[in-house]
From TrEMBL:
PANTHER family: POLYNUCLEOTIDYL TRANSFERASE, RIBONUCLEASE H-LIKE SUPERFAMILY PROTEIN, POLYNUCLEOTIDYL TRANSFERASE, RIBONUCLEASE H-LIKE SUPERFAMILY PROTEIN-RELATED. Residues 15-132 form the RNase H type-1 domain. It comes from the Eukaryota. This is RNase H type-1 domain-containing protein. GO terms for molecular function: nucleic acid binding; RNA-DNA hybrid ribonuclease activity.
Length: 137
């Protein structure tokens, strides 16, 4: 018997955050890809966050909200933050991250097809560049 892996979703959204310390603004960036072609991007600066992990989570939340507004409901999210991806995929409890993880889980139910995967930093350079630019906004 031959089995085939499911086709990847059309839309992939790479997210990243740029964080210096808990007193400075963080930057968020996301890039929506249709295959390999950029289709939509976002960049913003946000108030200081407690940690780089919090900033990464806020970046995923913001990207999810923006893609839902744009009517994209079948998306594979990609992040270079392995720790965050593990927390989301394994649905682990981490009290310091509970508000962000709860929001990601709630938003994920609004997607027809939601997944998140860890990608190498070298594959996330465009979202990284957007996030670094967001710090100064």
């Amino acid at each position: 018997m031959i089995t085939h892996a499911p086709a990847p979703p059309r839309w992939r959204c790479q997210t990243d955050a740029s964080w210096i310390n808990e007193n400075d603004r963080a930057g968020l960036g996301f890039l929506l890809l249709d295959g390999e072609a950029p289709a939509l991007f976002g960049v913003q600066g946000i108030r200081a966050t407690a940690s780089p992990l919090h900033a990464e989570a806020e970046g995923v939340v913001w990207a999810m909200q923006e893609l839902l507004k744009a009517g994209k409901r079948e998306v594979r999210f990609e992040s270079d933050c392995e720790q965050l991806v593990k927390l989301i995929v394994k649905e682990e409890d981490w009290p310091a991250m509970a508000p962000e993880l709860d929001e990601i889980r709630a938003l994920s139910t609004e997607f027809i097809d939601f997944s998140i995967a860890c990608i190498p930093r070298s594959s996330n350079v465009r979202a990284d560049s957007l996030a670094k630019g967001g710090r100064s906004r």
